[in-house]
């Protein structure tokens, strides 16, 4: 099955069941999701020993290849697992998205909101919503509220930029902005402006007509509310 396919986790669970039994027989405490797993031991020396022996079992008995770059011994009080950074503060375990997970999310949204992207605006919004819902539902129980607010502000600028780019010609911009409620003089300033689209997306005039509420009405998902809903379910 291709990596990332729907059936991949199922096949991993079937094939790695023997690994689960091996670790249980050894008395190891572990957590596994598909082919990613963490084994908890009492010391660094024990961790190094277990890493070697489990790697040997996987490669010799199960005939699989262990990714040496991702396999390491580390502290259980600061652990990266499945895109999460898990920390322990005063005996309380907390987790949040890792820097890499955040950066990947931002790259995805940037790709989805390219100025020159073709397709219906409604379809683009649906794809953005699908990605943001998936990411927030996955990381929703972590500490993401402040991050999500910043992402939404940035994302709305990207969407405004995309809209302005699609209007292209000055007279089209002026007409569209006036239809949304902007006065003629302000609409002309935007329509005939030589500023880059990103700078235009941050102007007070554009914000006044393409507001956050209007983007919500155009079916852009409100990210802070989505994060709050995801957090409250747990």
UniProtKB/TrEMBL annotation:
Transmembrane segments: none annotated. Coiled coil: none annotated. It holds the Pfam family RVT_1. It comes from the Bacteria. Residues 1-86 form the Reverse transcriptase domain. SUPFAM superfamilies: DNA/RNA polymerases. This is Group II intron, maturase-specific domain. It comes from Alkalibacterium pelagium.
């Amino acid at each position: 099955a291709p990596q990332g396919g729907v059936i991949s986790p199922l096949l991993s669970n079937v094939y790695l069941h023997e690994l689960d039994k091996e670790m249980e027989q050894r008395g190891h405490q572990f957590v596994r999701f598909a082919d990613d797993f963490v084994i908890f031991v009492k010391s660094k020396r024990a961790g190094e020993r277990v890493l070697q022996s489990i790697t040997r079992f996987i490669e010799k008995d199960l005939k699989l290849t262990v990714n040496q770059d991702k396999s390491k011994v580390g502290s259980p009080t600061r652990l990266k697992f499945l895109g999460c950074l898990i920390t322990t503060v005063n005996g309380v375990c907390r987790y949040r998205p890792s820097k890499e997970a955040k950066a990947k999310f931002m790259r995805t949204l940037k790709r989805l909101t390219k100025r020159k992207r073709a397709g219906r605006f409604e379809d683009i919004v649906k794809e953005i919503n699908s990605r943001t819902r998936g990411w927030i539902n996955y990381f929703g129980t972590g500490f993401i509220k402040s991050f999500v607010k910043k992402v939404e502000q940035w994302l709305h600028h990207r969407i405004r930029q995309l809209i302005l780019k699609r209007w292209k010609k000055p007279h089209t911009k002026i007409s569209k902005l006036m239809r949304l409620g902007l006065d003629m003089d302000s609409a002309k300033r935007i329509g005939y402006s030589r500023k880059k689209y990103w700078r235009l997306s941050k102007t007070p005039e554009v914000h006044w007509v393409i507001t956050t509420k209007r983007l919500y009405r155009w079916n852009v998902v409100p990210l802070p509310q989505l994060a709050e809903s995801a957090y409250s379910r747990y």
